Task: inverse folding
């Protein structure tokens, strides 16, 4: 019997509970949800930001208090805080295990969170090496600020080589099998890993489906995103987005519109249908759709009639929802004086700082660039520029990685550190950022990292040339919404 089928059968055995009947408990949960909304980005993985530490601590405290009163929903919130490191050290494995009983009690959000943890490749008794907590932060003062990177596994142990960790796990299992007279051959090892991976994928779908069966519409959207991003299954993704849209769920309309706009495998591009889906999501207050339709109205793109005033109204609504990308875009409008707003450095900086505080990596990078140059009425502050670049690197922002790497290389705003410089510039180059690729090649050839590596330098320059040729030959035709935003 399939994992999905088993999960559906188990649903019939759940106890009927009133999770938050007490008014005080409901009030606590409402406050926790408000704090979690401020802590997490609209899309993607939350990264710890210093000015939000107090909110994280308060979210964990209130969720724990509600859980002590017997609220099963609150227990799911505690697990969420444990997963992301709000108010305590991040430990996905502990969060995963703590959700087991909550799922048994029929809390749909617990199923969805358990699926999300599995999607991150963390299992109850098996950790795939791609999962690790990577923290980058600047420490010190003045010219002694240094970028510190720590990578730890779920137990807080330093990971030096994830692949070796995976091999070590297999060796331990092989020793146990050998002692029992049944050693693990390479073919069997490969087969068992594939079986375990297929089981993980099946459990992800089963958990999301269980949450959807319990009326948690957000799980339908997450399942659609999983099929699209991890399985490249546009047909199933489209089906789940349609189901969420049929229930008037804003995010369902948005993701459906994105697929209709871009086209994916079996889904052909249909701008008319896409605009209708985006319009429905925007009418329901969906921030991403408001920004998307607002930008289209301001510039008259994707078949939308040009209407700057109406477009600004939509962008402003998204800003009022504290959507970081919308705040960043409005800042750019004031910087460039895009109709119908007038150019204003004061409003540009104010909005840019707000977007950075809300977690926009683009805003962090741009604000860092302003501090670096001493532009728009701000005095040059290299240390502050470096701090902002480093914060943006937590989101794998390639321009910020390159900028922070150069500052480490030349000792600008921080202590000169060739090791950190090579890692940061290498990370940006690995994302095919052309300036970083060319700089990395030249730095290796010139021996600027302390050792000359002509062959590696030439390889990076050749790769940069090939990437540039490929970029020139690629014409998207219309503005494409990145699948990572889905």
Result:
């Amino acid at each position: 019997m399939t994992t999905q089928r088993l999960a559906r059968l188990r649903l019939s055995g759940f106890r009927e509970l009133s999770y938050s009947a007490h008014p005080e408990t409901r009030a606590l949960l409402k406050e926790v949800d408000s704090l979690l909304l401020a802590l997490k980005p609209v899309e993607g993985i939350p990264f710890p930001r210093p000015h939000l530490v107090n909110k994280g601590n308060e979210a964990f405290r209130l969720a724990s208090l509600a859980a002590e009163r017997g609220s099963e929903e609150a227990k799911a919130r505690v697990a969420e805080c444990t997963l992301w490191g709000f108010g305590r050290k991040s430990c996905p494995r502990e969060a995963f295990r703590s959700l087991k009983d909550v799922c048994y009690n029929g809390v749909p959000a617990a199923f969805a969170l358990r699926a999300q943890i599995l999607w991150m490749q963390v299992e109850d008794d098996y950790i795939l090496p791609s999962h690790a907590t990577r923290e980058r932060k600047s420490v010190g003062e003045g010219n002694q600020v240094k970028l510190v990177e720590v990578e730890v596994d779920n137990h807080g142990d330093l990971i030096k080589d994830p692949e070796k960790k995976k091999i070590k796990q297999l060796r331990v299992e092989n020793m146990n099998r050998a002692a029992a007279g049944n050693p693990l051959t390479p073919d069997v090892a490969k087969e068992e890993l594939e079986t375990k991976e297929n089981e993980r994928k099946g459990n992800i779908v089963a958990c999301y489906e269980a949450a959807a069966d319990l009326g948690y519409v957000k799980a339908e959207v997450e399942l659609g995103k999983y099929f699209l991003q991890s399985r490249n299954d546009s047909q199933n993704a489209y089906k789940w987005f349609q189901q969420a849209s049929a229930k008037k769920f804003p995010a369902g309309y948005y993701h459906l519109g994105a697929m209709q706009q871009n086209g994916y495998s079996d889904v052909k591009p249909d701008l008319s249908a896409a605009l209708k889906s985006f319009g429905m999501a925007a009418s329901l207050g969906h921030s991403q759709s408001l920004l998307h339709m607002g930008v289209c109205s301001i510039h008259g793109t994707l078949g939308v009639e040009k209407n700057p005033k109406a477009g600004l109204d939509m962008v402003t609504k998204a800003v009022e929802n504290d959507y970081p990308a919308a705040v960043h875009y409005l800042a750019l409008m004031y910087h460039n004086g895009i109709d119908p707003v007038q150019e204003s450095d004061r409003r540009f900086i104010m909005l840019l700082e707000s977007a950075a505080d809300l977690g926009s990596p683009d805003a962090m990078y741009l604000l860092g660039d302003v501090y670096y140059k001493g532009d728009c009425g701000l005095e040059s502050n290299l240390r502050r520029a470096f701090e902002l670049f480093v914060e943006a690197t937590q989101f794998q922002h390639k321009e910020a990685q390159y900028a922070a790497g150069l500052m480490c290389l030349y000792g600008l705003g921080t202590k000169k550190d060739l090791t950190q410089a090579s890692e940061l510039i290498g990370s940006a180059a690995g994302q095919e950022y052309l300036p970083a690729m060319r700089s990395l090649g030249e730095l290796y050839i010139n021996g600027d990292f302390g050792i000359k590596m002509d062959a590696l330098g030439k390889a990076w320059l050749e790769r940069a040339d090939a990437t540039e040729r490929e970029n020139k030959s690629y014409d998207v035709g219309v503005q494409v919404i990145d699948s990572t935003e889905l």
In short: The first helix runs from residue 3 to 11. The domain at 371-472 is CATH 1.25.40.10 (Serine Threonine Protein Phosphatase 5, Tetratricopeptide repeat). The chain has four domains: 3-129, 231-283, 285-359, 371-472. Residues 22 and 71 are 9 Å apart (CA to CA).
